[in-house]
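Chapter review: from sequence to fold.
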Amino acid sequence: MEIRAIRLNDIPACAEILCSVYNNELWQCRWSEDVAAIYLADFFYMNKFVGYVLEENEEILGAIFAHEKVWWNNSEVYVEEMFVKPEMQRRGYGSMLINRVGEYVKEKGFAGITLATNKYAPAPNFYRKNGFADCEHVLFMSKEM
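The token string follows.
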């Protein structure tokens, strides 16, 4: 098992995994692999991108796409996407990816890691188990058009 920095040629495999994770009844997404690849490549090309894949025998099992966010008092890493192949979930691989980002945050001396997730899916419990807390002072808002 190896965790390494994401390379551009990893994007298609990551897009395939993203589709397998989110195109189901729970998440109710309808990603195509082409659109998912464009979506993930946008993160890859972001300024201050931070990303890792988890692979075994040269097969990518999961990935985390994030970036550094500068704040007035201390920067943080914001996780945009994280996913592990459905058949490989519940084996600690997601925790390994989050922990690798945690190591990056410590190396940089940043404040921590932030993210947003669907509160109606199992993901919040996964993040709580990995030391994340609900932020009562933050309200995620949207405006549909």
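Two observations follow directly from the output. Residues 2-114 form a domain with the Aminopeptidase fold (CATH 3.40.630.30). The chain has a mean pLDDT of 94.
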